[in-house]
Design brief:
Homodimer. The protein has 368 residues and is of the alpha/beta class. Helices cover 37% and strands 15% of the residues. It has twelve helices and twelve strands. It is globular and about 50 Å long.
Length: 368
């Protein structure tokens, strides 16, 4: 088989590949595509810029375990502070929103539809409202009861799809069981699908050589944390616990786009603990409190805890507290770095939602 010996990448993508010595032997850059936008508050480059030909090296036998551990332990602490990283990103977004308002008199607009009174959903919505107010993004909230009909949600979506002042639409998941989640998410206008849940966005995320309009916010936030923590993803063994459409599945797809070797653990997986313990990067997104114990973690691994589980606690202001899918107290004794709950992935998810909404407004308003 003849492999193509030339590669088209963006300027930022070429730099990313060259820094990591990832351009295979004999491959030369054919052309540089349109330069990445002058404003970028994120470390992650475009996905297409990461694409390189799959040329297998017949000399590969196994990797040196100690060199893997050394790369993970370098400049890594015990706690990955998502609050701090998210604050830096929000500052950049606020600056850009102010520039947009001063230049063209417009600001990005985000609409959120929430159904029912789930505690975790209420927490997420409150955080989104506060974050939008902080950065200057217009926020519109539609609240519907648990027993609402699909048509009520679809009517709200139709209005937001047509509203030119709304650049991002998010339906807070999960929805009550009587609602057809797929039908509702399909109704979101593709150009406003800032949570990246539309099938076309998900399909482009999965396909080599394609670029989704939006990457789902939580997986995007997880990878951004890894990049900002100087964690090398390429060539590492990643295990994602959970395969939901909003976190587990897109997280596994995104890690593959960064050339990790990815395994997924789900409820029917045999010996999940053994599989998880093979991971250099472990992403826990099962939605089960403390399911990942210290014995599940490979010494020196990076652990990203996506879980946000409300636990009754009368001593807390709201009568409950949030814990993750990972037993943090055990994980920190084994892993080289762990995201806490709260204060880890959660703030990053909101920051990525703001970023995607800003990017959507840029496209709609032709704002450079």
């Amino acid at each position: 088989m003849m492999w193509r010996r030339m590669l088209s990448v963006t300027i930022a993508g070429e730099r990313w590949l060259r820094r990591r010595n990832c351009l295979p032997s004999g491959i030369r850059v054919l052309c540089t595509l349109k330069t990445d936008h002058a404003y970028r508050s994120l470390k992650s480059p475009s996905l297409v810029s990461l694409d390189i030909p799959d040329i297998w090296d017949s000399n590969i036998v196994c990797s040196d375990f100690h060199s893997f551990q050394a790369s993970f332990n370098r400049n890594m602490g015990r706690r990955i502070d998502g609050l701090l990283v998210a604050e830096e990103i929000r500052f950049g977004i606020a600056t850009e929103v102010s520039r947009m308002k001063a230049s063209i008199g417009e600001v990005p607009g985000l609409a959120v539809i929430v159904v029912g009174q789930r505690r975790d959903s209420q927490v997420y919505v409150r955080n989104k409202i506060a974050a939008c107010e902080e950065v200057g993004i217009k926020f519109v909230l539609t609240e519907l009861p648990d027993n609402c009909t699909e048509d009520e949600i679809l009517n709200a979506l139709t209005g937001f799809n047509k509203d030119s002042s709304i650049h991002g639409i998010l339906v807070q998941l999960p929805l009550p069981r009587h609602l057809d989640e797929g039908r509702i998410l399909d109704a979101i206008r593709l150009e406003k699908d800032v949570d990246g849940v539309h099938p076309l966005n998900m399909g482009n995320l999965a396909m080599h050589g394609r670029e989704p309009l939006f990457i789902p916010c939580t997986p995007k936030g997880c990878v951004e944390l890894l990049l900002r923590s100087d964690v090398e993803i390429m060539g590492k063994r990643a295990v994602v616990i959970g395969r939901s459409n909003i976190v587990g599945l897109p997280a596994s797809l995104l890690l593959q786009r960064y050339h990790a070797t990815v395994s997924i653990v789900h409820p029917f997986t045999k010996n999940p603990e053994n599989i998880a313990r093979e991971a250099d990067i472990l992403v826990a997104a099962a939605g089960v409190p403390n399911v990942v114990r210290g014995s599940w973690i490979k010494p020196g691994a990076i652990v990203i805890d996506v879980g946000t589980n409300p636990i009754e606690d009368p001593s807390c202001e709201n009568g409950y507290r949030l814990i993750g899918d990972v037993c943090y107290e055990e994980a920190v004794k084994v892993a080289s770095a762990v995201t806490p709950v709260p204060g880890g992935v959660g703030p990053m998810t909101v920051a990525m939602l703001l970023f995607n909404t800003l990017e959507s407004a840029r496209r709609a308003l032709s704002f450079i």
